[in-house]
Amino acid sequence: MDYSPALMTDMYEYTMLDATLRDGTANRKCVFEVFTRHLPEGRRYGVVAGTGRILDALERFHLDDEDLRFLSDRKVVSPETIKWLENFRFSGSIKGYREGEMFFPNSPILQVEGTFGECTLLETLILSILNYDSAVASAASRMVSAAKDRPCMDMGGRRTNEWAAVAAARAAVVGGFKGTANLLAAQMYGLKAIGTAAHCFTLVHDSEREAFQSQINALGKNTTLLVDTYNIEEAVKTAVEVAGPELGGIRIDSGDLASLAQRVRNQLDALGATNTTITVTNDLDEYALAALQTAPVDSYGVGTMLVTGSGAPTCAMVYKLTERENADGVMQPVAKKSKNKATVPGRKLAYRSYEYNLADCEHVISGSEDALAAYRPADGWKDLLVDFVDHGEIDPRWQGHDAITAAHEYRAKALAELPITAQSLMKGEPVIPTETTVL
């Protein structure tokens, strides 16, 4: 689809822009912050994902003539604002937690600095990407922990919106997955693609043997054959007869997966196919994966529960103004005082402290630019903020395949630095507290 990310907004972002251009406040310098007040119920941590997609979208965040006509014809904004938008490019700066980083309640996941006019236009795009991608990455990370050293693959494309499926595939890899069945995601982001055949492939042939022979002829003996269309025991026997003991793998998509995997492993070994792997699928989540830890399974395909965040399809992140230039040109911390929605004023620093090489606290330091510049963290605290955009210039290190690979590796390292209770699937509080200090 050829579309502008600059229209992936709520209408009120443009009406606010229009009003502030009229009254002169659109050009006031501002700092906006993305954070969540709470993790999904019972979760111990979250995983940041989607920042690279935000940067990709920023490169195309402008309006063409057709977009401007739409805004004009609908009278969303005034002719003066249309003129302002003609050459719009984001010229501000963005910093935040890198992809693959752990986050907790009130972590300043992203900070956007620029004029009010340009920063307010980014709200919906940033939140829609970070909320969904981080939800998927967080669920993926829990699943990877439950799977131990066995690889997990994304098979959720048919269980969500077609574009969400692409985003989910990318976020899943950030969260620890090894590949995806989604070819567009594989093409766009250089991900490993996986997939062989569905039950319909077996059903379209006159016999299971003919289906297996056809697949092997096309894909070679190292392929993975789906064995639960009819009778699993007969299918495994036929598969080894057709492919020989060099058969690459078999997949089971139904039934009591642990029991079936055990029986199939014993059967394969008895038939001499000792190196043939077993993959299981079928509505898996982190709890099902944990229950399969003792089963002789080699890899997992995960669909519905991955792309829906395993029951938490959003991270409840918000985008709030925390500092703005006042009428005298001085930067002034601001905050909401709404009941249960109060915010902490001022731009933020973020650190993580450690004891015996394990994280023990998230430290959020808030204050004026000068106060933060003079702040010195304690020895051994890790600075959690990195620069993504500097006065409109995007740092390409955080985009593309290499950035996804780095995030994939960083997540594992960051999780290993948390107390081991982070990997518990039992409901509990965030594994480390967040302490906020206002200077």
UniProtKB/TrEMBL annotation:
Pfam families in the record, alphabetically? NAPRTase, NAPRTase_N
Which InterPro entries does the entry mention?
Answer: N/Namide_PRibTrfase, NAPRTase_N, Nic_PRibTrfase-Fam, Nic_PRibTrfase_pncB
Task: Summarize the PTM comment.
Answer: Transiently phosphorylated on a His residue during the reaction cycle. Phosphorylation strongly increases the affinity for substrates and increases the rate of nicotinate D-ribonucleotide production. Dephosphorylation regenerates the low-affinity form of the enzyme, leading to product release.
Q: What class of enzyme is it?
A: ligase
Domain (Nicotinate/nicotinamide phosphoribosyltransferase): give its ranges: 152-323
What pathway is this protein a component of?
A: Cofactor biosynthesis; NAD(+) biosynthesis; nicotinate D-ribonucleotide from nicotinate: step 1/1
Q: Name one GO molecular function term.
A: nicotinate phosphoribosyltransferase activity
Q: Which family would the database say this protein is a member of?
A: Belongs to the NAPRTase family.
Query: What's the stated role of this polypeptide?
Result: Catalyzes the first step in the biosynthesis of NAD from nicotinic acid, the ATP-dependent synthesis of beta-nicotinate D-ribonucleotide from nicotinate and 5-phospho-D-ribose 1-phosphate.
- Name the UniProt record assigns to this protein: Nicotinate phosphoribosyltransferase
- Provenance organism: Bifidobacterium miconis
